[in-house]
Design goal:
five-stranded parallel β-sheet; 135 residues; 17% strand; Rossmann fold; alpha/beta; globular
Length: 135
């Protein structure tokens, strides 16, 4: 299993927004991951979702700076992973997971990644990952 960590948009927002309820926890987890030199990545879907979230919550300047900084590796989701994510949403129709959530789950499974840095309880609900952030 990979020691890599998928960073979710909820963790990125919490880290960048000092007023976020999870900011202190996010800063602590981010420091720990940096100390451990854990490889980190986002998907192209998380990149788009995070940019939109930062734009809405923290303004266009910060959103653009984050987008152009390229601080996290971006993996491009494959068409077959997009299809599997949609199938996952059909199979778990009782859940309110977003397409971005499902793509994250599929991308992590495909790459044998066990760790997600997130404050989104959907990662816990899916039940296949160790979620850093959610207590």
């Amino acid at each position: 299993m990979s020691r890599s960590v998928l960073w979710d948009s909820s963790a990125i927002l919490a880290l960048l927004d000092a007023d976020d309820a999870d900011h202190v926890r996010a800063a602590g987890v981010a420091r720990q991951l940096a100390t451990e030199k854990r490889p980190a990545f986002i998907t192209n879907y998380i990149e788009a979702e995070t940019h939109a979230l930062l734009l809405r919550k923290l303004g266009r300047t910060l959103a653009r700076e984050w987008l152009l900084a390229g601080g996290l590796a971006v993996i491009r989701v494959l068409p077959e992973e997009e299809l599997r994510a949609k199938e996952l949403l059909v199979r778990y129709s009782d859940k309110d997971w977003t397409l971005c959530d499902a793509i994250s789950f599929v991308a992590m499974d495909a790459r044998r990644v066990r760790y997600a840095f997130s404050f989104d309880r959907h990662f816990v609900q899916y039940g296949r990952f160790e979620v850093l952030g959610v207590e």
